[in-house]
Amino acid sequence: DSGVTQTPKHLITATGQRVTLRCSPRSGDLSVYWYQQSLDQGLQFLIQYYNGEERAKGNILERFSAQQFPDLHSELNLSSLELGDSALYFCASSPGLAGNYHEQYFGPGTRLTVT
Amino acid sequence: QQQVKQSPQSLIVQKGGISIINCAYENTAFDYFPWYQQFPGKGPALLIAIRPDVSEKKEGRFTISFNKSAKQFSLHIMDSQPGDSATYFCAATQPGGPTGTASKLTFGTGTRLQVTL
User: Fold this and answer.
1) Which residues of A touch B89 (CB under 8 A)?
2) What are the C-alpha distances in Å from B13 to residues A47, B32, B47?
3) What's the CA gap between B76 and B20, in Å, rounded?
4) What is the mean pLDDT of residues A72-77?
């Protein structure tokens, strides 16, 4: 168990809908990252937050957005869903300290199925 | 643009054998190279990692070999066990920002390892 929690575990929704995925980082970790894992694209970085502020963006679609709250949990919002958005979505967290800040610990993921 | 190339795509090894997975990178700014292990239905788990100032790192049955000049690194699993059957991802990341926050992980495409009895 990495200490990173994600809810829900599974999500089935229809095209055009909007969903919210939630992540709680490990205790004390300030950085949260979102990754998407699909069969054709592999593991792709979406977005990073550090202590409430957006730090980096990857190949995140404009229909997707995220935020990190004062208690450090993060939410990934996916809207106008398309069939191609079906994937596993992982959250990872890392400490905000020098030395071991490179280590990213992944949650169990949310499996999103768009029908 | 595939910044981290991983091979082979799949690997079958007998119990007790050595599993070897290779990765090559292009970005010389990468300064941290972790390996992740992922079981079906689970998130990737950090297995072992290395920095480019070290040529080898060993933790138990897992060893990373790093060749900075060739921009290659590999994972060796000694005495492979059926419980090691999983997908393995190499990854790389660049130095973080001024606060020391880690930057994104760039992953290889994964290697599906099967250890047979």
Assistant:
1) 43
2) 36, 28, 19
3) 5
4) 97
